[in-house]
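2 proteins. here.
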Amino acid sequence: MDIQNIIQKKLLPIALMLLATTSLFAQKVVRYELYVKDTLVNYAGKEKRAIAINGQIPMPTLTFTEGDTAEIVVHNQLQESTSLHWHGVFLPNKEDGVPWLTQKPIEPGTTYTYRFPIIQHGTHWYHSHSGLQEQIGMYGSFIMLKKQNDPTFRKGIDDLPTIPLMISEWTNFNPNNINRMLHNANDWAAIKKNATQSYAEAIRKGHFKTKIKNEWKRMLAMDVSDVYYDKILLNGNHTTDLKTVDGKVLKAGDKIRLRVSNGGASSYFWLRYAGGKITVVANDGNDVEPVEVDRLIIAVSETYDIVVTIPDDGVAYEFLATTEDRTQSASYFIGNGIKQLISPLPTLKYFEGMKMMNDMMKMDGNLDDMGMKMSLNQMDMNVVMYSEITGETKQKQDHSQHNMKMDEDPNRYNANALGEITTLNYAMLQSPYNTELPKDAPIKELKFTLTGNMNRYVWSMDNRILSEVDKIPVKKGEILRITIYNNSMMRHPMHLHGFDFRVINGKGEYSPLKNVLDIMPMETDTIEFLANEEGDWFFHCHILYHMMSGMNRVFAVGDYQNPYLPNKKQAYKKLQRESNMPHFMAQNDFATNGNDGEAMLQNARWSLGTEWRLGYNDMHGYEVETHLGRYIGKMQWLMPFIGFDWRYRKMGIDEHETNLFGQKNEKDTRRAVSLGVMYTLPMLVNFQAEVYHDGIVRLSLMREDIPITKRLRFAFMLNTDKEYMAGLNYIFNRNFSLRTHYDSDMGFGAGLTFSY
């Protein structure tokens, strides 16, 4: 008995200690079941397909506390494969959710489980990384809370009532069709947004010379976004009333923390609050020193935590998200009572922006590299387009007193120097904590130039798309220091999977941490991070249609063996293929004097096209020309090609046509193979030189899309075969237009043109 008592006395404390230790270190498993299923929605007047998870759009908000283990079970009830990526979350590479890079796609009718520890906190989000599914509903908030005893817990900030706020866009178009139209230079979106910048508009606004100079430099119309959206949504609604939080009625003096995520596929949003200034307290899930601003622009895929205060009782203050192109907005009313609206943003001054573009771009298509003078969003290249800065507000500084030309003024693009409105930029962000990287770690320096072609909608890095490059090898434990220069005419939100990076913004050891870097045209920025987690990590532009066009890279950290992808080389080839998909277009003019049209299949570099002219009689004749060519150079102004020409036209027995060089050009059943080249001249005129196997030479000049008015286009063609054409095209919608033209072979005609 004594021995038993002694054993009990000794074992009991040990058992209690083991129990306490187990409880202390046990991780709480937080499990979500997600059912992915097709649905129908009507956000903008038409019933359209969308993808819902658990019957809702956005997807359910997933909430965890640091120290938890996430277990997320995905049930794919679609007729296509899917995936989920945990944006900004630190996790093992195999859980990152990129098909053919970190996992195989989740096939229809199957179930897949993601499981990873929650080792951070902050506002993040999750979305599909398969095709264009993100555009039609697959996005949701992913919130990781701090522990109550976290030493970084900030009273008055981290204990405020919070609202996850997911911004998204909706289009009634199939996103695959949007992607195809972007690659085929269809400007229906510009027509919908009143952003065509036609010659008639240029003359009316006193910018005819600006328009001429723009096209002389072979630039298309100025734009700040790619896609026209029918509706903007906040948490799935166009308008929302927030009157209570956690069961408590909102009153004067209450502060609300909005966890805002931009889940849009391609839209930037201006965020403003009718109740006064907004206080930024976190960005991309990382704490920052609080900073008060009047507004901020949230890039695609960024997150911001902002604190707003209700000034008075009896008023509901509008929190407004407006697309950068000013075409759409969505409202969140905070408080109880009469709704207090914030003034809408004025329309963009496109021709002023075009004038600035003209000054920035050289004749070879490159931008003037301003180096670090243009960095961290301090100098906004679009600032002249924002009339609330340059027109309606009083300037803080009198720049007329400067002994320098305006183009030498360092503040000429500085929004905060030019106006009284305070706009957030990255230089204003500062971490509350030391973010320095280990001083003894080796450093690998990389430089990327962001490149693109609006004419053909090809987006690349160093003029190479993902399908043209290998993974970038990185040793585990290296510091990657990356300098990025944007030499394209669009801004790009560059997102890094698996890591946060330091933004080198002049804050030294307190440089902010981010996982998305919005970089503007002409801008040069530097980021750095410690590559301490093995795996293949995606680095890409988060504008969905830019990513799908090839603006991607993969960092291969260490020699990671992914259990889900035993054949990594084969898997990578499948990933590469997605960034260089072919796109088809076709159009045909059903006219009174015959049919003429074209069809084209092209990817980033290659183009296979056929043109036809079919008369209604033998005298008008029939002709089909086919070209297979490859675009060369960053701007892709040059395309060598091989061709085949078949034509028939009934002529007199002794009747022949001669070209400008005196060569006989027989059209009576001519079959000829050719070598040629097409080159885009100033004014966007295509010059084509072609030599046929029988020695015939043909030179041509043509352009098909001269914007006379918003909907009216002029076209012309002439060549050394003494053929010529001139016509007008009036656009009704994205598929149909009315065309009239005169053709030297077929005479005058008018008809309906179908475009696809």
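next one coming up
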Amino acid sequence: MFRRTRLFLVVFLLVVAATLAGLAFSGEDGPPSFGPVTIDPGKPDPFAYDPGREDEFVRRATAGHSHVLYAKSPGGVVATARRVQRWRLQVEEAAGEAGVDADLLEAIVFLESAGNPAARASDDLEGAVGLTQILAGTATTLLGMRADVAASERLTRQMRRRGPLPRLLRRRRAVDERFDPRKALAGAGRYLKLARQRFGREDLAVVSYHMGMGNLENVLGAYGEHDAGWAQVYFDATPRNHPRAYRLLSGFGDDSATYLWRVYAAREIMRLYREDPDRLRRLSRLQTAKGSAEEVLHPRSQTELFETPDELEEAYLSGDLRPFGGITGMQLDAQAGELAGRLEAERRLYRGLRPEAYELAVYLAAGVRDVSGTKASLIVTSTARDLEYQRLLVRRNAFATPEYSLHTTGFAFDVRRDYASRAQAVAFQYMLDRLQSLNLIAWVREPGAIHITASTESGDLIQ
């Protein structure tokens, strides 16, 4: 029977709506009083895997891992979807012959080759090539395809010198069927059919396409349930729960663990391309506006910004911002808000977050402490700003954006990339990956810090 995971340390945030006199805030009523942060290890993690919520976890992971497709697709997702759509009839034919889902096979084409039948993972043609990026060894030993690598490499060298002449392309397709789109699609369909027969599940068949059947067998063996769905294995295998399975997953280093979510994201992109192209274009603009999906979480047209120090002051008084502090395992850098004096404002105004982002920080810090076993704090270098402060910062910092900054919404904060130990750094990365997979944050590495943007749903982390 499935055993519900407990959060390493589950954090509760008690927000008390009361007045507090004597604080350095103006106004007759004063700001709301925020109660203490407490830890109750007896309560369940609100985002531990629950089999009754499998669809929710799949949806969250798909959304959380969509950004890379928008950011990396050659020519953008619309152009890539257009290339992939060209193969739809052949995809349906191959999927029908193998008895697999055509939309999933098409999504694999999107993710593996972006619709380019001549795609190569490297110059070594023993590696993955073609529309479905099949390895030479897999083609010949498992799928019954011809893949004469030596002949294929000779023809590829000739094409470098002479160009992709039709006769050379035909000859290469004959000696290396991975470059033949129909045969590549048929081969991928056969692989998915074989993998589904072996593992008994469609989702595991797709996972194995990138991870390999043997590696997936090892992961499932370490997890202890060979018939578990991938959402369960992925979210339930943590440094504390099923640690052997977690170590295997984290040790691949090639995104094998998240491959299924990216295939699902590609499937959704192709659906939008056919059914709602305007929405796809809007999402593409949001996804590619920054180095993360932060503008998807908080689109500029739908998000309130703080324009002046006075607006920050009002937000603290109303409870729309919470002063940063009292987070075990996370502390604010002494220089935070250092430009406040240039605006004749107080530094405290630039030392706070939206309540949802604050709760996210509490959850993140608690997880890092528990996984790493260290009491040292992560250092937060920046929190909420207003537009006036942002304009000053742009003049002094080449990395500060002159455009829409999520710091001016109160949902973003930066954590210095300077850790007390390797264990703390690894635990921090684990928590970032976990929260991204839950679609609760968008994050990106900057030169000196990790820039984190919290979703409005982050308030659900604290019960």
